[in-house]
Amino acid sequence: MITTLVKDSPDAEKPRPRKAPVRSFSDRYGIWLAFGIGALLLFVVAPATLSDFRLNLLGKFLCFAIVAVGIGLAWGRGGMLTLGQGVFFGLGAYMMAMHMKLADAELRGGPGALPDFMQLGGQRDLPAFWLPFTSPFATLLMIVLVPGVLALLLGLGIFKRSVKGAYFAILSQALAAAFAILLISQQNTLGGSNGISYFRTWFGFTLNDPVNKRMLFFIAAGTLLVIMLITRQLMNSRYGELLVAVRDQEERVRFLGYDPANIKLVAYVVAALWASIAGALFVPIVGIITPQDVGVLASIAFIIGVAIGGRTTLLGPVLGAIAVAWAQTSLSEQFPSAWTYAQGALFILVVGFLPGGIASLFLLRRRKKRKEATP
C-alpha cells in the first residue's frame, strides 16, 4: 500500500522519456550521396578517362552488375541460391539478338529477308517464333514478359512444393544446363554453339559509330542506377522485412499468416526480370551472344561476384560483379588455365572465412563506430 501511494504521489519522480537516437549525416543521406558519387563516376569520370574500348568493356561489366543486383535480392535477402540466372539473362539476350538480326536482314535484303546465318545454313523460311521480334515494341515487351512469366511458373511449381536449399540450387543449375544444350541444338534457327553475332544496327542506330557506343554505355549505367533504386525500395519496405524473415525463420512467418512461397516468388520474378534486361543490353554492347554466355559456368560466375562483394547488401553485389568480370578479362589473358582455379579458390575462401563478403568489413566498421559513439 505504501509503495502504491508513493508511486501515485505527484511528488514521485516520473521516468524520463527515452530520447530517439540521433541519426548521423551518413545515416540520413549516405545512400543518396553514394548514388550521386556513382552517377558522377559513371556519367562523367569514366567517359572522360577511359578509351572507347575500355568504356565499352565497362558497359559489359555493368550488365553483369544488373544481374548481380537481382541475385542479391533473391539470395542475399531471400536465401534462394539462384544458380540458373543465365537462363533469364540468355532469354533477354537472344530475344534482343533476334530483333537486331531481323532489322539488319531487312536493311540488307528488304522485308522478309532471312538473317545471314540462316541463309548459310540452308534455312528457307523464317521460324514462327522469330515473327514477333520483327517489331521493336513487341521485342521490348517480350523481354519483360517472357522471363517474368517463366519465372512465375517455375516459382509456383518450386516454392509451393517447399523446394529450397540445395535442392533449389541444383534444380536451377540443371535448368541453365538444359537451356544451353537446347540453344546448341538449334544450329539453323539460333546459331547453335556459334550463337548470334555480327550486328549492324540497334533500333536504327549504327553500332560502329563511337557516339552510339557511348550512348549504349550511358543507357546501361542509367539502367543500373534505376534498378538499384527500385531494389533498395524493395529491401527497405515491409516486403523486404518479410523476405528476410522468410530467409531466417520461414515457419514463424507461416504461423503469422503469410505464405512464404508468395514472398519468395516475388523476389525470384524480380531477379529474373533484372537478368533479362541485362541480357538485352549485353547484346548491342558486346555484339555477340552464345550458349557459353548463358550456361552453367556463366551462372556460377554471377554467383561468385555476388558472394565476393557481399550478398546481403545493395552495393556489394554490384562491386563484386564488376571486380570479378574485370579480373576474368584481365587475368585470364595472362593465365588462361589458372584463372578458373583461382576463381573457385577465391569463392571458397570468401564463403568460408568471410560469409558476408567484402562489404561486411565496412558494415562491421560502421557498427563498431556506432557502439563507440553510444554512451
Q: Would you report the number of β strands?
A: 4
User: What characteristic shape results from the CA principal axes?
Assistant: globular
Strands of the widest sheet, in order across it, are 1-4
Number of helices: 16
Q: Assess the beta-strand content as a share of residues.
A: under 5%
Distance between the termini: 37 Å
DSSP helix fraction = over 70%
Oligomer: single chain
Query: Structural class, please?
Result: mainly alpha
Please describe what this structure looks like:
By secondary structure, the protein is mainly α. Helices cover 72% and strands 2% of the residues. The chain has a domain at 53-290. It has helices at 2-8, 25-49, 52-77, 85-109, 116-120, 136-159, 166-185, 187-190, 210-236, 238-248, 250-255, 260-286, 296-309, 315-334, 339-353, 359-373; strands at residues 196-197, 201-202, 205-206, 288-289. A two-stranded antiparallel sheet has the order 1-4. Strand 2 and strand 3 form a beta hairpin.
Gist?
With 375 residues, this protein is an all-alpha fold. Helices cover 72% and strands 2% of the residues. α2 (25-49) runs antiparallel to α9, α3 crosses α13 and α4 (85-109) runs parallel beside α12.
Topology:
Layout: H1 2-8, H2 25-49, H3 52-77, H4 85-109, H5 116-120, H6 136-159, H7 166-185, H8 187-190, E1 196-197, E2 201-202, E3 205-206, H9 210-236, H10 238-248, H11 250-255, H12 260-286, E4 288-289, H13 296-309, H14 315-334, H15 339-353, H16 359-373
Antiparallel strand pairs: 1-4, 2-3
